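Pipeline run #58 for the internal structure catalog. This entry was flagged by the ingest filter as a single-chain record with no existing model, so it goes straight to prediction. Upstream metadata was stripped on purpose; only the residue string is passed forward. Reviewer on rotation: M.T. Logging verbosity set to normal.
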Amino acid sequence: MSERNGTPIEVAEETREAQSEEPTPEAIDPHEAELAALREQNEAQAKRIDELARAYADALNERESFRRRLERESERQIERARGDVAIVLLDAAEDLRRAVEAHTEDARALAEGVRMIADNFFKQLGQLGLERIEAVGKPFDPLFHEAVDLVPTEDASQDGVVLEEARMGWKMGERVLRATRVRVGKHVPAQPPSEEA
């Protein structure tokens, strides 16, 4: 009765084997499904991390390139400014050389020539943004003035006022390049005449 070819027993066994090869939804382990979902989620996150890492590396490279461009531009501007100053200095030096080579015996003419050269030199420096700090007659200000001497004065209104410049001061914009050296008035009350007996 156990004839295998095409018997009902054989058919039942083949059916069971087929069912065991293709698991039914009830036969799938819930842990396996959760594991597959986690693997998919992990792969998606790994792709996203890779994209973000590449974007971050690109941003770092762009930042470095931008910094190098800024440095190059800054160096070019500094060189341009140096060139502008050098031209002014060269012009003044050339004017002074011509004045010395003029072989004039007239000291007054030489002095006038040197004064004109100095005026032209300061005018050119002014075009570069250099500005003289005016001091005489103004209250002493330690941000702009450097006191080298106190000058006694009987006039109380001259106390703390710049009476004389010892050296010119210069600024560029708000930046003081060199403070003006000044002599400042110091009020000293007049001594009453002493009575001699």
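catalog note: The chain has a mean pLDDT of 83.
catalog note: The chain has two domains: 7-128, 131-190.
status: ready for reviewer M.T.
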